[in-house]
Amino acid sequence: MPIIDLLPLAVFTKEPTMFGFLKINQDANFDEVQDAFVERVADAAQDFVQAAESTGAVLDYSLSSLHALDTALEAAHLGTLPLTPMQTVGAAAYLYEVGRRAHGGLYEVCDDDDPVVLVCGEPGAEVCFGAIAKVERRIRDGATESIPAYFEQFTSALQAGQACTIR
Predict the structure, then answer these.
(1) Per-residue pLDDT tens over the stretch 52-85
(2) What's the CA gap between 166 and 32, in Å, rounded?
(3) What is the mean pLDDT of the chain?
(4) What is the 3-state secondary structure of the chain?
(5) Owning domain of residue 140
(6) 4: in domain
(7) Which of 165, 164, 96, 97 is nearest to 131 (CA)?
């Protein structure tokens, strides 16, 4: 599957988005924009962590916490953890942050299914990782949309140096 043509965050000019960005000037410093975006994603993830506390999930941004994330999303699937749309995005932000903290990468603007993606890997072997649509499918469809197995696809692609999109 080819890499999606991504727009750099520095030229993102849409109205406010789920992570609170307004129009960004093309002359903005890319590192400043990325840092601000990381902060917004981390804040959204933390909002989800607080919402998921009632499930007993230990969400510490470690790779092993992906099982706890999956358990919390199963609770959302079953209706025992009601999530607002923003908390659902926060669950995706949590998944992004686990990936970014483990593998580095940059957040990029993508498309309607995944308005934001995490891009990791070496030039020519970038892995574009979408979490928003996946989290929505996990909540809607249940355990068949396992988060740990999905993240393993991402990790395997990075280790193989395989340019691809994981959705």
Answers:
(1) 999 999 999 999 999 999 999 999 999 999 999 9
(2) 27
(3) 86
(4) CCCCCCECHHHCCCCCCCCCCCCCCCCCCHHHHHHHHHHHHHHHHHHHHHHHHHHCCCCCCCCCHHHHHHHHHHHHHHCCCCCCHHHHHHHHHHHHHHHHHHHCCEEEECCCCCCEEEEECCCCCCEEECCHHHHHHHHHHHHHHCHHHHHHHHHHHHHHCCCEEEC
(5) 9-166
(6) no
(7) 96
Q: At what angle do helices 85-103 and 132-141 cross, to 10 degrees?
A: 120
Domain count, the chain: 1
Q: Residue 157 to residues 10, 91, 135: CA-CA distances in angstroms?
A: 27, 22, 20
pTM here? 0.83
Among 21-25, 48-52, 64-68, the least confident range:
21-25
For residues 57 and 69, the answer to whether their CB atoms sit within 8 Å is yes
